Write a sequence for this structure.
C-alpha cells in the first residue's frame, strides 16, 4: 500500500505552480501571479465565472493583486456567501478590495517577526512550567519593537518637513522607502535571533501563528504541515471553511460550539456509519513515510488526561491538542500486532489530501471533478470527522486566547484567565485554564511570575508595542436574511466579548449587524486587549512585538 497509484490522470502544473487544469481558456491570466497553496487552488476550481471575473478585475494591473491575497478561508467564504448570503458576499468583496494593502502589510510583518515572537512567548511558558529546553534557555529578549525604528524614522521625517515642502507623490514615495526600511530591519533582527538559537533543539510547541502564515508555508513542506517546527499548528481551515466543504447545517454548527464549551468529545453521529470500512479514511503511511502503511485508519479524538509522570516539556507540547481529532491505524484492532507508528492529526491529513486530491480520486478527469468528489465525501462518510474538526477549532480558539492573556499579563490565574468569568462556568475553559496554569508548576513559580509581571509592566509602560493579528474575521451574517452564525451561538453560551470565539463586542447590538471589518487589537498594556470598537474580536492574533 505504500507505493503511489499509477494512473493516467496525473495533475500537471505551470512554472508558477498553478494546476494546468485551472489555466483553461479565459483563465490564463492566473499564471501571471504566483500560485496560492494547492488546497486553495482546489477551491478556485469550484468558483463560478462571475467570482473569477471579480478577482481578475482586481488583480490584473492592480497592486496588490487580489488573487495573491485570497487565502483558503477567504475563498471558502467567497464561495459559501455567494450562494447562501448575498449581502455578506457583497460586504466581503468590498472588504477585500478596500483592505488589500493592509492585508499584505500584515502578512509581511508576521513573516518578518513570527519566529522570534513565537519563541519568546514559548520561553514564557517554559519558565512558568520549569521545563527544560536548551533552545529557549539560549533565547534573549530582543526588542523587536518597530517603535525604535519608527523613532529614528520619525526624526528624519520631521527634519524633512522643516526643510522642504513635499508633494503628495513625494510623501507617498518617502513613506514607502521608510516602510521598506522598517521591514528590512525587522527581518535582520529576526535572522540574527534565528542563527543564535538554531544551535539547539527547537522544542517548538506554542500554536499561535496566524492561519495565513501557515498556509503560506504549506508548499515549502510539500503541504505536509506536520513537518513545520511544531506539529501543534492547526491546518489553516476555519470553522466556516469546514461548513463550506461539508455543507454543514446551522444546527450542526451550533452543536459544535456547545460541544466545545462542554468538553464533549464524542463524535457527532449522523446518517453515516463510523466504521473504518464505511468511512474510507486514508492509509496515512501512503503519504507520510513515518506513519503506518499496513492498515487503514480510524478516527478518534485526543483525550484530556495526561500520561503519568510526564516531563514538563512533554506536557507543554501536549496540552494544545486535547480534544483534537486524529487518525490512528488499525493494526492492533485487526490483530496485526502493534506497528508502533504514531497518530496523525486529522486536520493535517485533510489539508494534505486537499493538496493532492489525485490520491483520493485518481480517476477523476479534472481538478474540479476531484474537488467536487472530495466535497461529496466530506459531507457524507467524513461528516463526523468534519464536525469534530469544527469542535476543535473552537477549543483551539479558547486555548490561544488564554495563552495570550497569560503571556501579556503573568498575574492571571485560572479564575481570570479570560476576561469574562461567565465563560469559565463551562467545563472546557475551566479544564484548559488548569492545563495552561497547572497548580503544580505555577505555585512554585509564583514568585517569579510576580517579578516577571512587574518587569513586563515596566517594559510595556515604556513602550506601547504594536501587535500583529490575523486581520480577517469571517463575515458576520444578517440574522434576518441568513441562518445564525455559529460564533453567535457561542455568544449565547456566555462567551466573553474579548474571547476568541466571539464576534460580539461591547457597544454592538448584534454580531450580525456589522460590516466586515479588520480586527485590529493592540496590546497597549498588560492585561488589556484594547479593540477598535468597529472591529470584531478575533482570536487569530499574534503579537509580533515579542
Ligand atoms: Zn499500523
Amino acid at each position: 500500500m505504500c507505493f503511489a497509484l499509477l494512473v493516467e490522470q496525473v495533475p500537471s502544473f505551470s512554472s508558477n505552480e498553478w494546476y494546468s487544469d485551472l489555466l483553461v481558456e479565459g483563465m490564463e491570466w492566473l499564471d501571471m501571479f504566483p500560485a496560492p497553496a494547492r488546497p486553495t487552488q482546489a477551491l478556485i476550481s469550484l468558483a463560478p465565472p462571475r467570482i473569477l471575473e471579480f478577482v481578475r478585475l482586481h488583480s490584473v494591473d492592480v497592486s496588490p493583486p487580489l488573487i495573491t491575497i485570497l487565502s483558503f478561508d477567504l475563498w471558502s467564504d467567497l464561495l459559501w456567501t455567494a450562494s447562501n448570503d448575498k449581502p455578506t458576499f457583497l460586504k466581503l468583496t468590498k472588504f477585500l478590495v478596500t483592505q488589500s494593502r493592509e492585508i499584505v502589510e500584515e502578512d509581511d510583518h508576521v513573516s518578518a517577526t513570527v519566529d522570534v515572537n513565537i519563541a519568546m512567548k514559548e520561553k514564557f511558558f517554559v519558565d512558568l512550567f520549569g521545563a527544560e529546553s536548551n533552545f529557549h534557555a539560549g533565547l534573549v529578549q530582543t526588542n523587536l519593537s518597530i517603535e525604535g525604528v519608527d523613532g529614528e524614522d520619525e526624526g528624519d521625517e520631521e527634519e524633512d518637513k522643516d526643510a522642504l515642502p513635499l508633494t503628495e507623490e513625494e510623501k507617498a514615495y518617502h513613506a514607502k522607502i521608510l516602510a521598506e526600511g522598517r521591514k528590512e530591519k525587522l527581518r535582520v533582527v529576526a535572522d540574527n535571533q534565528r542563527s543564535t538559537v538554531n544551535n539547539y533543539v527547537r522544542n517548538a510547541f506554542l500554536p499561535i501563528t496566524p492561519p495565513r502564515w501557515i498556509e503560506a508555508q504549506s508548499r515549502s513542506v510539500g503541504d505536509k504541515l506536520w513537518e513545520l517546527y511544531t506539529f501543534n499548528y492547526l491546518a489553516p481551515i476555519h470553522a466556516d471553511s469546514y461548513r463550506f466543504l461539508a455543507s454543514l447545517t446551522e444546527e450542526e454548527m451550533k452543536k459544535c460550539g456547545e460541544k466545545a464549551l462542554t468538553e464533549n468529545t464524542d463524535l457527532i453521529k449522523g446518517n453515516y456509519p463510523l466504521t473504518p470500512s464505511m468511512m474510507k479514511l486514508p492509509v496515512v503511511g501512503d503519504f507520510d513515510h513515518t506513519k503506518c502503511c499496513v492498515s487503514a485508519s480510524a478516527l478518534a479524538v485526543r483525550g484530556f488526561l495526561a500520561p503519568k509522570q510526564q516531563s514538563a516539556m512533554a506536557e507543554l507540547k501536549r496540552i494544545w491538542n486535547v480534544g483534537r481529532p486524529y487518525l490512528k491505524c488499525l493494526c492492533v484492532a485487526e490483530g496485526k500486532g502493534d506497528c508502533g507508528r504514531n497518530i496523525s492529526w486529522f486536520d493535517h491529513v485533510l489539508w494534505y489530501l486537499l493538496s493532492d486530491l489525485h490520491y483520493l480520486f485518481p480517476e477523476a478527469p479534472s481538478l474540479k471533478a476531484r474537488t467536487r468528489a472530495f466535497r461529496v465525501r466530506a459531507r457524507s462518510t467524513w461528516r463526523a470527522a468534519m464536525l469534530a474538526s469544527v469542535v476543535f477549532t473552537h477549543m483551539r480558539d479558547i486555548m490561544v486566547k488564554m495563552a495570550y492573556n497569560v503571556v501579556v499579563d503573568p498575574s492571571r490565574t485560572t479564575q481570570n484567565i479570560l476576561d469574562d468569568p461567565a465563560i469559565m462556568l463551562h467545563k472546557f475553559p475551566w479544564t484548559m485554564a488548569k492545563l495552561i496554569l497547572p497548580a503544580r508548576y505555577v505555585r512554585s513559580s509564583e514568585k517569579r511570575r510576580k517579578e516577571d509581571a512587574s518587569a513586563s509592566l515596566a517594559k510595556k509602560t515604556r513602550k506601547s508595542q504594536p501587535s500583529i493579528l490575523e486581520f480577517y474575521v469571517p463575515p458576520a451574517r444578517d440574522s434576518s436574511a441568513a441562518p445564525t452564525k455559529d460564533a453567535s451561538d457561542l455568544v449565547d453560551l456566555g462567551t466573553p466579548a474579548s474571547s476568541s470565539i466571539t464576534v460580539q463586542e461591547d457597544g454592538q447590538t448584534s454580531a450580525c449587524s456589522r460590516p466586515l471589518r479588520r480586527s485590529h487589537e493592540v496590546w497597549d498594556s498588560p492585561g488589556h486587549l484594547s479593540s477598535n470598537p468597529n472591529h470584531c474580536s478575533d482570536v487569530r492574533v499574534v503579537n509580533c512585538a515579542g
Summary: Residues 86-129 form the longest helix (44 residues). The chain has a mean pLDDT of 79. The CA atoms of residues 361 and 370 lie 6 Å apart.
